[in-house]
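Collaborator request, handled under Task 6.
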Amino acid sequence: MEQGARMKCAGAIGPCMAQDSGHHHHAGRSSADFIDARRVLRDIGLSEGQVVLDAGSGSGHFSKAASNIIGAGGTVWALDSDQPSLDRLIRDIFTSGLRNIRPLLSDLTEPLPVKTGSVDVCLLVNVLHGLAWEKTAPAALAEIGRVLKPGGRLAVVEFKKMQMDFGPPPEVRLEPAEVERLVAPAGLKKERSFEAGPYSYALLFRK
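Structure tokens returned to the collaborator:
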């Protein structure tokens, strides 16, 4: 356990309860409706045996896709501050036998209950715009930089800055250049960008 975070784990696949200090959830459709998680994960090169942090996992659209790619030798830390979302994920874990997913009830704006230098890939899917709007992105990105291994990667998926009938309003959305400016102070270097679906783009950074 790092940075003084206190947590209590409720079994091998139960959530680890860390001090919770708020929520980062945004109204609209689920990313499962318009983002092919397996395709995005293939595009970033996720592979068997890796450790993944799905930061702001919700009910686990990306966590479940990552679980199938990394296999029994890998681990997905599915972190969210919303207990009902994690409860839905836990039910899916039992139903589908996805035993390599470890739900974590925690908040990105607080020290993460994840060991320093232990994560191969961190996912921020439709999360960073909310952190930026609330001006908590620097602290969250610094923690992500801490938990990534040397050479570890951060994948940021965000809504394109366009008018649509779901997702955050255009003024809250981030242009790719804004994402780069937010991430740079955490010591992560941009590798590339790619389309993540008709309404989304992705940027890949390396520590």
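The cover message to the collaborator said: "Confidence is low (pLDDT under 50) at residues 1-28. Residues 36-194 form a domain with the Rossmann fold fold (CATH 3.40.50.150). Please let us know whether this matches your experimental observations."
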